[in-house]
Design goal:
With 728 residues, the chain is mainly alpha-helical. The chain contains 29 helices and six strands. It is 47% helix and 3% strand. The structure holds lanosterol. Residues 86-373 form the Squalene cyclase N-terminal domain.
Length: 728
């Protein structure tokens, strides 16, 4: 074998931009566990033909037929469903690219590198392709998310990723990225997560990283800042991060990382005093500057406390490791998300060795996060959107009034089977010990394996099941006792405010805890918050349940609903809107809030709140009849028009909102729907527009199925309310 062939994958330079054969990729879906497979031989490819869904996700021609032109809303629903039903996967769920964040792949690729993982050529090729495609054309950098301005975080991390995947340093695109990075001060100016990951790789020094002490996990539970009180995503990331930090683990230098040390900084690596740069951060990355309190704590942790901390270091590491093991066991190594999964893998390698079973299990599970689209391969924000999107499809079809159409019966039945299969049936082992919330009866956002209760996913899951099972021709797969379990979980999740958060009740004080927010790039991440979206899902879920089963915990449900709706009402802003935390932005949350108000009979005719909300929406309707809101709304918390004008998904949200409020005039709604219908393609499809979702105020995330689900729902709702006369 020539030497170049024998060198490890990461030492071999890519010489040209290859592309893999798009006709060879298949999405494997095993009870919701999704992985992309590349079929190497023609024989394999012939035996496992590509489906329309594969082709759709890969950006190939779906070969789905054109429909007769739609003139009425229900015709558009029919065409939309004809297309969208073809994207359903065998186990009954829908899937999609769930990208947006630009900081996920780097964690995965650095982890592969330091764990000596053998990465298939096609994976390397397509990740490179994706990163090239997502490089900002003007300045050559990358941002926090795909539509964001270039930052040190995005640029340093993705530059490093491309190099690890074989892109040569003298590639013109990398030369440009490097110049930009240097102009921003180099990787020294990165936020905490950049410094952490680059230290793991061995191209930054640990003394330049603010402390992540595992000793915090030894704080008694009553302490107001004890980690069990943090938002689950923060504490589950902090967990392995603290273990790795405590070991100051760095991969041994290789020829490639030696080169990276030269490339990531404008100055010579040996000349850098890393300790002086713990707090250096570029203004482009500093959305949530560290507080004086946090800076003082960090100072003490570096300068005063080490002797004390070292006395409890071993105990802390052992306890943290036990928690990591519990997370792996409770999720079958799927883990909460794409940030803690690779970090857990490194922690397991540190303690048990690179060839250990846990490392192998992690390696296998990381594939669940990867997704192939027309640009290349990316890392999804979760291991999929299985339960969430499937529940929404069911509701859209039911709300559209077409669930009884025999044409959609097999699709809906399969979707129901999927939700049946995905309900979580048992509590976690050691639930209290690892600080997990109840989960028996819940639905997760993605899969049962991942297994984390989410308030609104549970509510939407239960709602969809109840809606279908109430219809003639649909079997009762999820029996009453299992629905009661779902309701029992929901009833444990209400906050003292009356609102509902995402995964758990709020466990800590927001002001105190946000003052310890060390991530710099995100806002409102340290504890759980109440959300109009989550609260609404619970209200409507409870409402449907109590209507279906009036004799189960009726009083508890009534009180819970009342308190939740009161909270939602009070969360309305003076301008009439609600701020959205998971979709962009005011259109999204206002749709949910108005649904809650409607559930208790508060609509335009009687409610000042509903009137103010409708007024807000109408003020933002564009001349073409649609709505379009930029992701900047989420950042600055004021309405910002979408630079590309009206968006199909947001237009559908606004129309649904107005209909939920029973807005008396049909004209503005009809104008919105006309826009949606005009944008529908001949085959029933809607094309991808701007990004739809958000988290932590600053990071955008794609929900590509929303452009199908919400237009279908809006069009059908309109037809039910105002008749199915031709609109276009
Ligand atoms: C999600 C995705 C789904 C989302 C909704 C169900 C839509 C929401 O209503 C409740 C919160 C939830 C479950 C949610 C929380 C935060 C997630 C998991 C994400 C936005 C997807 C990705 C994000 C996660 C935190 C990304 C990893 C990044 C870190 C900062 C750890």
């Amino acid at each position: 074998m020539p030497p170049a062939e024998r060198a490890p994958w990461y030492e071999r330079a890519a010489t040209k931009d290859e592309r893999t054969d798009r006709t060879r990729w298949r999405l494997l879906d095993e009870r919701g566990r999704q992985r992309w497979k590349y079929l190497k031989t023609k024989k394999e490819a012939d035996e496992w033909p590509q489906t329309a869904a594969d082709r759709f996700h890969l950006g190939l021609d779906t070969q789905l037929p054109d429909q007769s032109p739609a003139h009425t809303p229900l015709e558009a629903v029919h065409n939309g469903l004809s297309f969208f039903s073809e994207l359903q996967l065998d186990p009954g769920n829908w899937a999609c690219e769930y990208g947006g964040p630009m900081f996920l792949l780097p964690g995965c690729v650095i982890t592969w590198y330091v764990t000596g993982t053998d990465v298939p050529e096609e994976t390397k090729t397509e990740i490179r392709n994706y990163l090239w495609a997502r490089q900002n054309k003007i300045d050559g950098g990358w941002g926090l998310h795909i539509e964001g301005d270039s930052s040190v975080f995005g640029t340093a991390m993705n530059y490093t990723t491309l190099r690890l995947l074989g892109a040569p340093a003298d590639d013109l695109r990398l030369i440009k990225a490097r110049a930009l990075l240097h102009s921003m001060g180099g990787a020294l100016m990165g936020p905490h997560w950049t410094k952490f990951w680059l230290s793991v790789l061995g191209v930054y020094e640990w003394e330049g990283v603010n402390p992540v002490p595992p000793q915090l996990w030894l704080l008694p539970d009553w302490v107001p800042i004890a980690p069990w009180r943090w938002w689950v995503h923060m504490r589950q990331v902090f967990l392995p991060m603290s273990f790795i930090w405590s070991h100051r683990y760095s991969h041994p230098l290789t020829p490639l990382t030696r080169q990276l040390r030269n490339e990531l900084y404008p100055q010579a690596y040996a000349a850098i005093s890393f300790a002086a740069h713990r707090n250096s951060i570029s203004p482009k990355d500093n959305y949530h500057p560290k507080t004086a309190l946090l800076n003082t704590i960090n100072w003490a942790l570096v300068n005063v406390l080490p002797p004390v901390m070292s006395t409890i270091q071993k105990r802390a590491e052992d306890w943290v490791y036990e928690l990591i093991q519990m997370e792996d066991a409770n999720t079958d190594y799927a883990n909460l998300g794409p940030v803690n999964a690779p970090m857990n893998m490194i922690a397991r390698m540190i303690r048990e060795g690179v060839d250990s079973e846990p490392v192998k299990r992690h390696r296998d599970r990381l594939d669940d996060f990867l997704w192939v689209n027309k640009e290349g391969m990316l890392m999804n924000g979760t291991n999929g959107v299985q339960t969430w999107d499937t529940a929404f499809v069911i509701q859209a079809v039911v709300e559209a009034g077409v669930a009884q159409d025999p044409k959609w019966h097999p699709m809906l039945l399969n979707a129901l089977k999927f939700l049946d299969d995905q309900q979580i049936r048992e509590e976690c082992r050691d639930q209290a010990k690892c600080y997990r919330h109840n989960r028996k009866g819940a639905w997760a956002f993605s899969t049962r394996d991942q297994g984390y209760t989410v308030s609104d996913c549970t509510a939407e899951g239960a709602k969809s099941v109840m809606l279908l099972q109430a219809l003639p021709g649909f079997p009762t797969l999820v029996d009453r006792s299992r629905l009661e379990d779902a309701i029992d979980v929901l009833l444990t999740m209400q906050n003292s405010t009356g609102g509902f958060a995402s995964y758990e009740q709020t466990r800590g004080n927001a002001t105190l805890m946000e003052s310890l927010n060390a991530a710099e790039v995100f806002g409102n991440i340290m504890v759980e918050y109440d959300y109009p979206e989550c609260s609404t899902a619970v209200v409507t879920g409870l409402a449907l349940f109590t209507k279906t089963f009036p004799d189960y915990r009726a009083e508890d449900i009534k009180i819970t609903m009342k308190r939740a709706v009161d909270w939602i009402s009070n969360a309305q802003r003076p301008d009439g809107a609600w701020y959205g935390s998971w979709g962009i932005c005011f259109t999204y949350a206002t749709m949910f809030a108005l649904e809650s108000l409607a559930a208790v009979g508060d609509t335009y005719a009687s409610s000042k709140r509903a009137q103010a909300a409708c007024k807000f929406l109408l003020e933002h309707q564009n001349a073409d009849g649609g709505w379009g809101e930029s992701y900047r709304s989420c950042e600055i918390q004021e309405w910002v028009d979408h630079p590309q004008g009206s968006q199909v998904a947001q237009t559908a949200w606004a129309c649904i909102a107005l209909m939920e409020a029973d807005f008396p005039e049909k004209e503005p709604i009809a104008r919105g729907l006309k826009l949606i219908m005009k944008r529908q393609q001949a085959n029933g499809e809607w094309l991808q527009e701007g990004i739809e979702g958000v988290f932590n105020k600053t990071c955008m995330i794609s929900y590509p199925n929303y452009k199908f689900v919400f237009p279908i729902k809006a069009l059908g709702m309109f037809a039910r309310r105002h008749g199915d006369a031709a609109l276009i």
